[in-house]
Amino acid sequence: MSVSLPDVLPDEDVLDYVQRQHGAFDARLYQQVLGAANAFKEGDAAIGVAAADEDSRQRARTLLSRTRLEDVHAHPPFEDRLHVFSLEAWDAARWRRVADWTLGQLKDFLLTADEASVHDVLDGLPSDVIACVVKLMSDAELKAVGGRVFHPLPGSRVGARGYLGARLQPNSPTDHPEDIRWQVFNGWAFAVGDVVLGTNPVSSDPTSVAAVEAALHEVLVTFGLTDVMPHCVLSHIDVQAQVEARHPGTTGIWFQSLGGNEAANRTFDVTLEKMVAHAASRTGRWGLYFETGQGADATNGHHHGTDMLIHESRKYGFARALKRRVAVAQGSAGRDAAPWVHVNDVAGFIGPEVFRTREQLVRCCLEDIVMGKLHGLTLGLDVCSTLHMDVTLDDLGWCQEQLAEAGPAYLMALPTRNDPMLSYLTTSFQDHVRLRERYGLKVDDRMWAFFQRLGVIDAAGRPTEHFGDPRHVYVHYRRHHGDTRPEAELRAEAEAQMARVRARGVPLAVGHGEEPWTLEPALEQDLRQLYEDAKVGLWSELSDATVESLSGAVRLRTCSEDRRDYILHPPSGESLDGDSEAEVRKLRERHAGRWDAQLVVSDGLDPRSLMDAGHLAPFVETLRAELGAQGWSVAPEVLVVKHGRVRAGYQVGRLLFGDEGDATPRAIVHVIGERPGSGHHAYSAYLTAPAASTWATPGAVDHDRTRLIAGISDTSVRPEDAAREAVRILEELAATARTMPPSAGDTAAMG
User: What is the top-level taxon of the source organism (predicted)?
Assistant: First the structure.
């Protein structure tokens, strides 16, 4: 359903319009008018708050421009404790200076007032007001505001005017320290990487996370950079805290994804109390690193009827309040209150259900840059695209250039535009080189001096003969370790290590094309072949032969009409259709409670991951054997779900295992084809093992109760190893389920 606004009366604002239409304030119509003012995005359309046409959008903006800031603040589109907490960092005195302005007046002020005057009011702007004023701006106006408001990180030039930093993202399909280390060397060879060394881990096991933390920390220690930039393993913040407790001093800045409301944050296993406690512990130099993105709240079912822009702005309000708590913690510890807190907006990571085109990607990023800056935050961007969006490799370069004018603090940085672990498109090292050259941008001064000491750039900042050569960085690394072997021997050792890295499916960029900012031609060709291969995988179908090869296969399907519906409308793949639901109920009757573990297989976004030889069969065989050895009774059937997503597995668990009076742990192992793009044709295993009474409670089982093993294939995480790790994790989950007291929902159900 879309929002149509047929007319607007002279001088009418949003509240007047709602009153005229309904004779009283109507919360739903209010949400719809706010949403209708947004530039079009699929995510708003999915929840019924997108404008029906351009005339309706302009009328909504007219109404909004006439609305007083005080009236917006007094009518939050929804309320929860996160909204209240975010006001902790809100300056009521500064608010009183602007509260009587209209949103149109605020927009004009942001575009015309001097920079000092703009900075003087920022702390007085609440999140909903910031979201609403951004709705009124054109792309050009967003660039203008973003290009005049800057918040550098303390003691650095990261986020300052004229600077563009980089988060090195050295991801590995197997969390291999060698892959991670070499991608750092690779980035530094291009004079890229000055904000954070940040790895997305495959495994969230504390031991594995600790190994990655140690690898990153060791590189910084070796080069004497521990006071210049932090490192980070982007696991759940609780896991990072565990690693720090076990190995003090080895973690850097702490990471967490944030939602725009309490319910969305619970999906990430995040609560206000938890985040406040973590903020209070950050008394050292490095604080907190947050990631956000428009659409995450809605795709997890927690939109509260409110558009994506408002949710995103509230995430920044949450981050602003937590930043203040870090400052308080530093002051209490006797340090200067200089919180190193920044936000990375991961725009485009979710997929076409949020937005689909390159123009929408740019619009989203511009909105988020300005909202972050108006919250007083240092905001970076992951200008990214999944392979099922209508954004190409070449489109990303165009997007980056549109956004550089708005002054993001930093962008991601990888050897190519394709992430070898996450299977999505983002920013390469050489994109940074191009943007710096084109727009006259710099990196943090301390790291620029370091790159000059490395000899990859000269005193004038121009590339040297060592530019783009990670082997040269490795030689310096070994020299810092006191290694006196001849350089030729060290370079030969580097070549051997780089060959191993590439064999694990991690590209390294060595040298360049005709210009320093273009990929070496053979690597460019490899990148484009991976892109084309991903498109093939995305539109593949799971073969009958694969299903028939699974002993005891039971065919099910979701509500997706076809593969296109499944890809473009993910909720259609989250629930079984009526016939399949009835089939699972019959299966439960036949099982009669004999089994406590069930294997589910869904095609996912790359069905080839289940069809390739040596992929699925070894996992299933090893899993069954290992579960049996640990005393689990595994159902003989394999439930094969056509067009299935993760939540379809939760529905299977509820239908099969839900029992209000049973505290026994019951496990679902859900195998799903991952996003294509890495070349590994990998799949994931989602592991969930709560008590049967928890399965029985509607909504009690979601992603926060699930553990994940990603990157399973014959060329990354070996299927047999993944199966053994799955059983270990299920043992942990079951032990937790046995000792965890019933939730409020469980208690009510059992009463």
Answer: Bacteria
**Tokens 């702490």 -> residue:** 254
CA 90 to CA 124: how far, in whole Å?
6
Q: Per the structure block, which two tokens stand in for 381?
A: 């961007």
Contacts of 239 (CB under 8 A, 6+ apart): 204, 206, 209
Report the alpha-carbon distance of residue 461 to residue 454 in Å, rounded: 12
Report CA-CA distances (Å) from 380 to 268, 293, 337, 344.
21, 12, 22, 5
φ and ψ at residue 132, rounded to 5 degrees:
-70, -35
d(CA 719, CA 722): 5
Structure tokens at 546: 């694969």
Burial class (CB in 10 A: 0-12, 13-18, 19+), 479: middle
Q: What does residue 667 show for φ and ψ, rounded to 5 degrees?
A: -110, 140
In sequence order, the 6+-apart residues with CB closer than 8 A to the CB of 117 are 109
How high is the pLDDT of residue 737? 94
pLDDT in tens, 288-298: 999 999 999 98
Secondary structure (3-state) at 411: strand
| Contact in structure between 540 and 533 (CB atoms under 8 Å) | no
Written as six digits, the tokens of 611 are 């069809």
pLDDT tens sequence across 169-204: 999 999 999 999 999 999 999 999 999 999 999 988
Residues 36-71, buried b or exposed e (16+ Cβ, 10 A)?
A: bbbbbbbbbbbbebbbeeeebbebbbbbbbbbbbbb
227 — phi, psi (to 5°)? -100, 5
Q: Is the pTM of this model over 0.90?
A: yes
Read off the pLDDT of residues 323-366 as tens digits, 9 standing for 90 and up: 999 999 999 999 999 999 999 999 988 888 999 999 999 999 99
Instruction: Tell me the HSE value of 513 on the side-chain side, using a 13 A CA sphere.
Output: 13
What's the CA gap between 75 and 77, in Å, rounded? 6
Q: What are phi and psi of 418, to 5 degrees?
A: -110, 120
Question: What are the structure tokens assigned to 255, written together?
Answer: 């990471």
CA 348, 350, 353, 354 dihedral sign is negative
Q: What is the C-alpha separation between 58 and 240, in angstroms, rounded?
A: 46
Single-letter residue type at 384: C
- Calculated CA dihedral for residues 373, 374, 376, 377, nearest 10 degrees: -40
480: Cα within 13 Å, side-chain hemisphere: 16
Distance CA 531, CA 424 (A): 10
**Beta-strand relationship, 342-347 and 378-383:** parallel
| Residue numbers in the chain where pLDDT is lower than 50 | 743-751
Count of H-run helices and E-run strands, the chain: 34, 14
E-state strands within 310-434: 342-347, 378-383, 410-413
Residues 6+ apart with CB under 8 A from 360: 39, 40, 41
CA dist., res. 53 & res. 35, Å (int): 13
Question: Which of 434, 432, 474, 482 lies closest to 455, judged by CA?
Answer: 474
- The closest of 242, 219, 222, 116 to 168, measured between CA atoms, is 219
With beta carbons less than 8 A apart as the criterion, state whether 713 and 615 touch.
Answer: yes
Please say whether the beta carbons of 598 and 656 come within 8 A. Answer: yes
Q: CB neighbours of 631 closer than 8 A, spacing ≥ 6? A: none
The residues, ordered by sequence, that sit 6+ positions from 558 with a Cβ below 8 Å of its Cβ are: 566, 572, 573, 574, 575, 576, 577, 580, 641, 642, 643, 644, 645, 648
